[in-house]
C-alpha cells in the first residue's frame, strides 16, 4: 500500500459512525446562510428582505474570480440580511430566510440527457460547475471552477479524487463513497473532461474496505480510473501528501498541485459536480458527521446550509451533559465552536462533541529536544524552532525558516511529549508574517 514519504503520525481513527447511512435533515424554522462560504471574496446578495425564494434559487452571486455563488436550500421568505457570528465567532454577513414549512423543500432536478452531457464542452462544464456554487468540500472550500481553469503553459495530467478521510472521527466521505460510488466516478470523469486531464486516481485509506470495494466496482466501468488503497497515516488527505502518495510527485514550496500536473478534489466535490451536470442541482446541502464519545445518535447527516449547529446536534440526540468542547471539523484540524447558534456552511465536514475530561489541555513542559515534531512534520520543517521564534517575536527569522509552508495539520503538537502548543505559535507566526506583507 502507498503513502507519502516524509513525516506523518498515527492517531487513533475513532470512526464511531463508520457504516452509518446518510440521514436527511429537512430545513425548518430559520436558515442563516453565510455569504462567505469559500476561500476568496464573499458572495454578493441578489435578493432583499421580503423576497420569496425557492429551493435551488441563487441568492448571492460570486464576488470575484476566487469566489462562488450561494443558493437557497429551501422555499421561504428573506427576512433580512445582517451580520452574524460564524463558528469561529467572527462576524460575517448572512441572508436570513424564514422557511415556508408548508412548501415543497426539495431542490428540483433538471436532468440532462446522455446526449446533452456528451455534447458539453470543457468551458461549458466549468460554467455549470461555477454556476452551481461548487467548492472544495474537504474543508478548504477553494472554488472548483478556479482549480479547473488551468493556467496557460501548464497541463493537468491527473485528476486525484481524495477519499483518504484521514481525520479521526469523521466518516462523511466514507458514507458518500459507500452509497454514491457510481455518481462520484461520473463526477470525476466530468472533472477530467473539464480540465483536459488524462488520468483519474482515487485514493482511499485502508480502514474503509466497503468504500474501496464500491469505488472499484464503479470505476471498472471506465477506462483509466485507478482506485488505490492507501496506508493509514495522517495527514494523508492533505493534497500535497496525497499527490506524493499516489504519483510520487512532490509539490515544491510555494507551488500548487497544477505545477506538478495534478488537480485534487474531494469525493464529496466530485459528487456535487455529478449532481450539477447530470441533474442540474446547485450545491445547497452537504453530508457531515456528528460524532463524539458520548453522542446518543451519532451519524452522517445530509444537512441544508444555514441550519444552526445546535439544531443539527439535536438531530443527533442533543448535547451530552458532560460536554467540554464542540469542534467544527475533526480533532486535528477542526476549531472549537464559539457559538452553537452559528450556521453550518459548505466547509463544515463534521461536528465533534468532546467530553469535558478530554477537552482540557495538559500542562506544558519544557522542550526536551527529542525532535519528534521534526520527524512528524510532513513538510520537513523544524516545528520546535518555529515555536521558539514565534515566542520571541522573531517574525523575519520564522519566515526564513519556512513558517508559511506549514499545513497546520497539528502533527507536531499531537506528537510532542511535553504537550507544547507548537501549532498555536506557528499559526501566530504565519499571521504576523502575512501582516508584514
Structural description of this entry:
The protein has 15 helices and 17 strands. It is of the alpha/beta class. The chain has helices spanning 114-119, 122-131, 144-148, 172-179, 181-195, 209-219, 239-247, 267-278, 309-315, 356-359, 372-376, 383-391, 395-400, 411-415, 422-436; strands at 22-24, 30-34, 44-45, 52-53, 58-61, 70-71, 76-85, 91-99, 158-163, 199-205, 225-230, 262-266, 285-291, 299-304, 323-328, 335-336, 350-355. The protein folds into 2 domains: 1-19 and 105-360, NADH-ubiquinone oxidoreductase 51kDa subunit (Rossmann fold), CATH 3.40.50.11540; 372-436, no CATH class.
Give the secondary structure arrangement, pairings included:
Elements: E1 22-24, E2 30-34, E3 44-45, E4 52-53, E5 58-61, E6 70-71, E7 76-85, E8 91-99, H1 114-119, H2 122-131, H3 144-148, E9 158-163, H4 172-179, H5 181-195, E10 199-205, H6 209-219, E11 225-230, H7 239-247, E12 262-266, H8 267-278, E13 285-291, E14 299-304, H9 309-315, E15 323-328, E16 335-336, E17 350-355, H10 356-359, H11 372-376, H12 383-391, H13 395-400, H14 411-415, H15 422-436
Parallel strand pairs: 1-14, 9-10, 9-12, 10-11, 13-17
Antiparallel strand pairs: 2-8, 3-5, 4-7, 5-6, 7-8, 13-14, 15-16, 15-17
Helix pairs in contact: 2-5, 4-6, 5-6, 5-8, 12-15
Rounded to an integer in angstroms, the radius of gyration calculated over CA atoms is 21 Å
Strand composition percent? 15-25%
Which CATH first-tier class of the largest domain would you pick? Alpha Beta
- The computed structural class is alpha/beta
Number of helices: 15
Largest sheet: 6 strands, mixed
